[in-house]
User: Which sequence fits this backbone?
């Protein structure tokens, strides 16, 4: 037993020695295989039949240098091509500005080429013809009409936000302000250009600008109608400009005289004597004393309080020496649509501008001129948008904090409450051709 155990131990020791020697041999071979090669072998190119040593290194450098030269040459060709395209676009822009200046009556610039770019000019004119500038278009519903936003030098009255925000934007957003200022400046350049003005004509400035309306048709461009003071009372100068996603172009310039344009204000009414008395105070101040070119038609429903309303009309007529009014009594329940229709059909005189009005409307004499300027018989109608409604009791809270009546009427606050007393102010507008 002892002999077998000794033989087994001797055999295990021999196997262990052999395994150790085998590991040592494998380690030596691995070290030899991983040892870096000499300098001459490292400089050689890893390709068949390639040069080795110093000559191979110089060949690699020459090849890289040639590739860099080719790449630099390609970049230079691309830069030259881009410069040519930029010069071509600049020429097109100069041609467009040249034709826009020529259309606006500013005369050609000697530094610009005389040969027109026929394709660009044709495109600009086609945009004007496609837009609703010279004539109206038929629409499926009234909701398809693109409204105009009105503006002055200080404010913009917009409709795009509805009544969710204050429609009067002041201060005006910079991009919109720059756009409108450019339109006003282009109009002033046209009015003051030697080709358009006479030798004795005064110089127009921004102070002569009264108001403007504009709207953008997204696939055509932006239309501007700008109104300036004229040389005499009740005279105005209006310019129609169009920006077809390019330079502003003059479409039309005209002189307007509103001295003989009469406005027939039609008011349907039932009871509400206090409101009518308040309305007549504003009517006397704005329409009789300041404007003087109006006719008032009151369509009254029912007999209750009718004598009081007639008395207010007669007293105003005597006090202000005003005879241009009509009182039409009707029986039955109040109907605003019927009252407006009867009042419009009752007129038997010459052509007149109809102003459909409510008894709780406050307006100014300037707004009457806005109505005259933005309407045209058989061609254009004007829809003022009333966006100021409020109940003074809800807005001001305490009775001792309520301002005078004149300031209440021109306040711009929105309160949505069923049955609340309302007062409306005209400022924003929809104007459309028919």
Assistant:
């Amino acid at each position: 037993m002892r002999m077998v155990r000794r033989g087994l131990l001797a055999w295990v020791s021999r196997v262990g020695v052999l395994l150790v020697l085998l590991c040592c041999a494998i380690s030596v071979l691995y070290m030899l295989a991983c040892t870096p090669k000499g300098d001459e072998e490292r400089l050689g190119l890893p390709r068949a039949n390639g040069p080795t040593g110093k000559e191979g290194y110089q060949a690699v450098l020459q090849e890289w240098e040639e590739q860099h030269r080719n790449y630099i040459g390609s970049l230079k060709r691309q830069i030259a091509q881009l410069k040519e395209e930029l010069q071509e676009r600049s020429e097109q822009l100069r041609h467009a500005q040249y034709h826009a200046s020529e259309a606006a009556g500013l005369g050609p610039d000697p530094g610009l080429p005389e040969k027109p770019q026929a394709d660009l000019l044709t495109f600009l004119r086609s945009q004007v013809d496609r837009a609703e500038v010279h004539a109206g278009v038929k629409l499926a519903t009234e909701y398809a009409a693109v409204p105009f936003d009105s503006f002055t030098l200080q404010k913009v009255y917009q409709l795009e936000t509805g009544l969710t925000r204050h429609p009067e934007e002041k201060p005006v957003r910079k991009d919109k302000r720059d756009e409108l200022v450019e339109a006003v400046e282009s109009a002033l350049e046209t009015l003051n250009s030697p080709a358009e003005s006479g030798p004795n004509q005064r110089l127009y400035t921004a102070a002569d600008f009264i108001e403007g309306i504009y709207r953008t048709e997204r696939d055509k461009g932006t239309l501007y109608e700008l109104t300036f003071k004229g040389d005499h009372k009740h005279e105005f100068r209006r310019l129609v400009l169009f920006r077809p996603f390019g330079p502003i172009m003059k479409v039309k310039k005209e002189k307007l005289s509103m001295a003989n344009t009469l406005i027939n204000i039609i008011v349907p009414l039932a009871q509400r004597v206090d409101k009518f008395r308040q309305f007549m105070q504003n009517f006397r101040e704005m329409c009789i004393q300041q404007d003087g070119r109006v006719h008032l038609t009151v369509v009254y429903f029912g007999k209750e309080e009718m004598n009081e309303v007639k008395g207010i009309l007669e007293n105003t007529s005597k006090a202000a020496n005003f005879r241009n009014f009509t009182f039409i009594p009707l029986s039955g329940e109040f109907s605003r649509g019927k009252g407006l229709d009867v009042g419009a059909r009752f007129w038997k005189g010459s052509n007149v501008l109809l102003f459909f009005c409510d008894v709780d409307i406050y307006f100014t004499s300037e707004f009457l001129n806005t109505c005259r300027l933005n309407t045209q018989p058989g061609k254009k109608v004007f829809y003022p948008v009333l966006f100021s409604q409020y109940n003074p009791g809800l807005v001001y809270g305490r009775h001792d904090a309520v301002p005078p009546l004149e300031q209440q009427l021109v306040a711009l606050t929105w309160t949505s409450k069923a049955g609340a007393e309302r007062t409306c102010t005209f400022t924003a507008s929809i104007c459309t051709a028919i």
User: Anything to note?
Assistant: The mean pLDDT is 76. The chain is about 45% helix and 20% strand. The first strand starts at residue 149 and ends at 151.
